[in-house]
Amino acid sequence: MVLFFVVLFSPILTGKAAGEEDELLKEYHAYEERFASIEHMEELEENQYEIMEEQIFPVTLESIRSEELMLVPAIDRSLNRLALFFLDEDGNVVYRYNRLEANYRIPGEVRQAVKDVSGVAFSDVNGDGLKDIILISRCENLSGNYAGIPYKVGDVLFQGEGKLYRDWRISDKINRFSMNKSTNQILFFVRDGVSTEFLYTATTLEELKEHGFSVFEDQKYTREFERLGRLQVVPGVFRMAWYDFFLVYLVNEQGEIVWSLQPMLDYDGLYSLKGINGRDVDGDGMKDLVVLARYSREDETGEQIVENVCSIYYQRTSGFEADTGFENYYQYTEEDTMEDMIQKIRAYWGWQVETND
Q1: Which helix (H) or strand (E) holds 237?
Q2: How far is the CA of 40 from the CAs of 10, 70, 255, in angstroms?
Q3: Which of 11-25, 84-98, 113-127 is least confident?
């Protein structure tokens, strides 16, 4: 049984100097006061909120009001924070909520990374007879290693006594284990108990298979990796709510998982796998792994698009390290063969002589 409880949030200020903390608190309190002051739909724009027009829906929240309300998601564009406003037929704000997972992606900062809302659904998730709200936001960091790369953040809001609340433990698992690609995916996890967590916690290949991981037998092979020994390269997928989670595992002769790779990153699902090759590409005498695949994701309009991705994992003393620079050197296309890519990666590392290993 899953327990549900209210978690109240405030900005995380660890590591901040006293003066910085004071300024952050002032900024946060000013934001909260502005949020609380909005009493009518017309005041949203005046307070720098952008309404997500395509995600406005009628909903009946029995614990808050017996009459139907209008759910209006809106983003505070001055701070990129999401809020939900529930309006009556005259446009008056009956209830509001902003304690959302998407508003806490950047610890210690008031400004967040919310771009828009990509999904809203209503369902009795916890079996208490009341409709709950499933929400997916699209975020994009302005700085850091993943700046400019869109990602999704899922959340579930449960009905309590005259209020909405969320369980931070559920929100954490939804996003930590990438079960945030669609509202159906979140529903499968929270209501039905289907989870991708085993993909990240399993210790043996047998355990993966027992939980539904499907191995690509035609792409599976064995290699002698200099630092890690003789390992089987095992690619495969786990399907959840019509999305394929793609991972590659390195398994020893005893069937134990030695290493796992997730070349899919934050894409929605695997579209097709072109191949996996284990060869030395950076010239250090140790075999690396190159994965060529196509992945699907939603663009900002909600349309599904497919992108080609070349993922490189360099063998190091303690395991494998993902490449972070080759994509700036060359963009993999559908026309490129695996051999083409091996030679291009080697050229990136300064190899002068072609090899046929």
Answers
A1: strand 229-240
A2: 26, 12, 61
A3: 11-25
The rounded distance, in Å, linking the Cα atoms of 329 and 124 is: 49
| DSSP category for residue 300 | T
pLDDT tens digits for range 299-350 = 877 789 999 999 999 999 989 999 999 989 999 999 999 999 999 999 999 9
| CA distance linking residue 49 with residue 37, whole number of Å | 13
Record the tokens describing residue 47, joined without a space. Answer: 């307070």
DSSP 3-state assignment of 172? helix
Helix (H) or strand (E) holding 76: strand 69-76
- The Cα–Cα gap between 357 and 345 comes to 15
Hey, which bits of 241-334 come out as E strands? 243-251, 257-261, 269-279, 288-298, 304-316, 319-322
CB 49 within 8 A of CB 31: no
pLDDT above 90: percentage of residues in the chain: 85
How many whole angstroms separate alpha carbon 73 and alpha carbon 86? 9
- For residues 266 and 328, give the distance between their C-alpha atoms in angstroms, rounded to a whole number: 19
pTM equals 0.86
User: Is pLDDT at 130 greater than 90 in this prediction?
Assistant: yes
Please name every residue paired with 291 in a beta bridge, in sequence order, or none if there are none: 276, 311
Rounded CA-CA distance 167/156 in Å is 8
